[in-house]
Specification:
- This protein is α+β, with helices and mostly antiparallel strands.
- It contains five helices and seven strands; from the N terminus they run βαααβββαβαββ.
- It has a seven-stranded mixed beta sheet.
- Bound molecules: coenzyme A (COA).
- The site of coenzyme A (COA) has 22 residues, from helix 1, strand 4, helix 4, strand 5 and helix 5.
Length: 175
């Protein structure tokens, strides 16, 4: 299976929403109950700022969207366009950790290295802009990927802004 990658475009928005919907609904199922999955939909998803910033990647297999994810030089740690409390403030690479954001793999392509490839692309791009550390807020479904790629778990918390409390863990890695 050959994975190709490119930056996401606004023309991808509908396909990205469909992919995220499938990933949240299916790949979180081993970790969350139905009410937590519903709650997840409110606090996860697409942040179009990343597409406009040119820091959001898609991975394709034979022209079919297999996964997406990105990084950010802005302060928001996680969340979609609809999530309250987002901040577009620019980070300082000398002091702050780059954010890794919104990683989703279509269930048909899970466990084929899509997430790992996107993380590598994000880390290379952040490093090229002078960041020496990366940080993210992981779902329980995301935690095994990030651990496998060298991220260290820190604070554990729950986010109940979507209803049922969704467990999350802050993770970081030196680049
Ligand atoms: C998290 C997610 C993006 C992982 O994507 P993926 O493309 O399947 O990940 P990869 O195939 O690159 O996995 C790389 C390694 O991570 C680990 N890993 C990934 N998913 C795992 C899982 N469900 N269980 C155990 N280990 C896992 C494995 O070590 C894997 O290597 P291996 O398959 O050779 O054993 C995907 O499961 C997803 O979309 N989840 C739902 C949305 C979500 O929660 N996203 C994270 C937001 S923080």
């Amino acid at each position: 299976m050959s994975l190709t990658h490119r930056l996401a475009r606004r023309a991808d928005l509908d396909a990205l929403r469909t992919l995220m919907d499938a990933a949240i609904g299916e790949l979180q199922r081993p970790f969350l109950d139905d009410s937590q999955i519903a709650s997840s939909r409110a606090i996860m998803g697409l942040d179009t700022q990343l597409i406009d910033d040119g820091t959001y990647f898609v991975v394709e297999v034979d022209g079919e969207l297999a996964g997406c994810g990105g990084w950010s030089r802005r302060a928001t740690l996680y969340g979609s366009d609809q999530t309250p409390g987002r901040s577009p403030a620019l980070l300082d690479p000398a002091q702050d950790a780059a954010r890794v954001r919104a990683m989703y793999t279509h269930p048909h392509f899970a466990r084929r290295g899509v997430g790992r490839l996107i993380l590598t692309l994000c880390e290379e791009a952040a490093r090229a802009e002078g960041f020496t550390c990366a940080e993210l807020m992981a779902t329980l479904a995301g935690e095994p990927l990030y651990r496998a790629c060298g991220y260290i778990p820190g604070e554990r918390l729950t986010d109940d802004r979507g209803g049922a409390p969704v467990p999350l863990v802050r993770m970081s890695k030196m680049l």
